[in-house]
Amino acid sequence: MIKLIECVDILSIRKNSMSMAFCFVTWVVAILYLFSHIEMGIAATSTFILVTIQLISSINDIYSRTIPIKFMIFSMILCFLIFGIFYKTNALINCILGGVAAFVVMNLLILISKRQVGGGDLALMTVTGFFAGINTFFSILFISIVLTGMYSLFLVFAKKGNKNTEIPFAPFILLGTVILVLSNN
Question: Which of 50, 64, 116, 167 has the most crowded CB, counting CB atoms within 10 A?
């Protein structure tokens, strides 16, 4: 069985409940939008699966600062099954290019950030790249980085954090994806 949330205690739940609630509300907004504005087809189903993977990863990242690699491997296999069965060759190539680009770019970010970006973030963005494709991946990454930077600045100015404060990246990946979904009619 895949362990999704590790090292959760009551104090951690209380401390992080607002972050988790924000992630859940973001996910609900995406799902409501998908079901009300997009014809329910394989594209909407793929997006639903992606934001659900991101929600689970976000909750885990908030509570334990980890994203389970087994869950990410399962997610990648699920992506290949969906794209391999339901999409044409061009979509599958776009899927593969998105995942490879995500893997390469996130490895560069890990090196540049001196390992402040973690392996779980790498895995989640790789899954996101596989599901979203190459062009959409870069948009999600850009939005996620900008949002994380804005949140970091807020923490510094509010004197609630400093340059060494750990910030889970997965919730910003979820938020970036949902912003992109909402902005693309």
Answer: 50
Is 140 contained in some domain?
yes
Contact residues for 55 (Cβ-Cβ < 8 A; gap 6+):
23, 24, 26, 27, 174
Whether the predicted pLDDT of 94 surpasses 70: yes
Query: Within a domain: residue 78?
Result: yes
How is residue 12 written in tokens?
A: 């951690």
Instruction: Please write the tens of the pLDDT for every residue from 97-129.
Output: 999 999 999 999 999 988 888 899 999 999 999
The single-letter code of the amino acid at 185 is N
CB-based burial label for 147 (10 Å; 0-12, 13-18, 19+)? middle
Residues 6+ apart with CB under 8 A from 157: none
Whether 72 maps to a domain, the answer reads yes
Residue labelled with tokens 């491997």 = 73
The boundaries of the domain holding residue 105 are 10-183
